Amino acid sequence: xxxxxxxxxxxxxxxxxxxxxxxxxxxxxxxxxxxxxxxxxxxxxxxxxxxxxxxxxxxxxxxxxxxxxxxxxxxxxxxxxxxxxxxxxxxxxxxxxxxxxxxxxxxxxxxxxxxxxxxxxxxxxxxxxxxxxxxxxxxxxxxxxxxxxxxxxxxxxxxxxxxxxxxxxxxxxxxxxxxxxxxxxxxxxxxxxxxxxxxxxxxxxxxxxxxxxxxxxxxxxxxxxxxxxxxxxxxxxxxxxxxxxxxxxxxxxxxxxxxxxxxxxxxxxxxxxxxxxxxxxxxxxxxxxxxxxxxxxxxxxxxxxxxxxxxxxxxx
Amino acid sequence: xxxxxxxxxxxxxxxxxxxxxxxxxxxxxxxxxxxxxxxxxxxxxxxxxxxxxxxxxxxxxxxxxxxxxxxxxxxxxxxxxxxx
Lengths: 316, 84
Description:
The complex is a heterodimer.
Chain A: H1 12-20, E1 25-28, H2 33-46, E2 51-55, H3 63-76, E3 79-82, H4 86-92, H5 94-105, E4 114-120, E5 130-136, E6 142-146, H6 149-177, E7 180-181, H7 187-192, H8 213-223, H9 227-230, H10 245-248, H11 254-265, H12 270-277, H13 281-297, H14 299-302
Parallel strand pairs in A: 1-2, 1-7, 2-3
Antiparallel strand pairs in A: 4-5, 5-6
Helix pairs in contact in A: 2-3, 2-8, 5-6, 11-12, 11-13, 12-13
Chain B: H1 2-16, H2 38-52, H3 63-66, H4 69-81
């Protein structure tokens, strides 16, 4: 994986002033590596006085996310506010809808239980990828059940309220400050469609969308992002049970996904990638197929609204 | 067997191809043809469960059973012949 050139970090302020005509940047701080690096880039590009951070915990969030998000804001010296979104989520019916969908599959699911969605079949070729719910009762006992279509769609649809609510809050602050919103997807997420349309996929600028996750960590090292954030395992922090991205979306941990994606993008031989990633050649080939499948199925997430007839006066 | 194929073909064409059968053949791979994704597989499984009163078990949810009209018909034949 090539190291980044420092010159790759410079162009944010030009885009902000020339393209977006906004005076600063708003972003959500999750205490994860992507939002931390994006915040540090924003500060470098436009100055700490023009970067506004938001912590947006809710009932299911891990407390560490808020603590580390605040730590990053303090480290950078940026203004940061907390907007707890539990009340909004309650009003949308998120918690009720989510719990009802889980109970379709795990009838005993009740208050005090934790849960998450995990992907099945993706780690091995020759099978479909399906989804299962993992639910944990207050005593720590877990059950795992495959999700039928309706329950799966309902859980995902309800959960997407979280990303869309957070984006609504970000745009509220951006509008009142006359700032733009910075999105924080890395290349793996951006390429593979691991985002919610109108939620975390919505932003005016995505400063790290071209960077492999490994490069995001390199950049964090270069920026001096606090160790505790750099050492934190990537998590979606979307479900009440801790969930790694490789449990929900990617076939293997990000270090290996990065190498597979880099190898595919650069036309490398599968055997070379397999050796570098410590995977079997067949596994790399399967992951490459999965990358193509995800690109095809998530293409619509990247598309602007389709028009029946182009309006040439509006540049898109 | 023919009934299964007709039913599955109609479901796939109506739901995944917006009524345009194109060159969908009984042996066309849904995966290779980009016809069905992971959500589509669940839809397909639910359809055959409700239509034929069977339960597709987790270990039966594999391309060998569901990746073409022919594969599904053979799977249904075997499944419905088996003692419940």
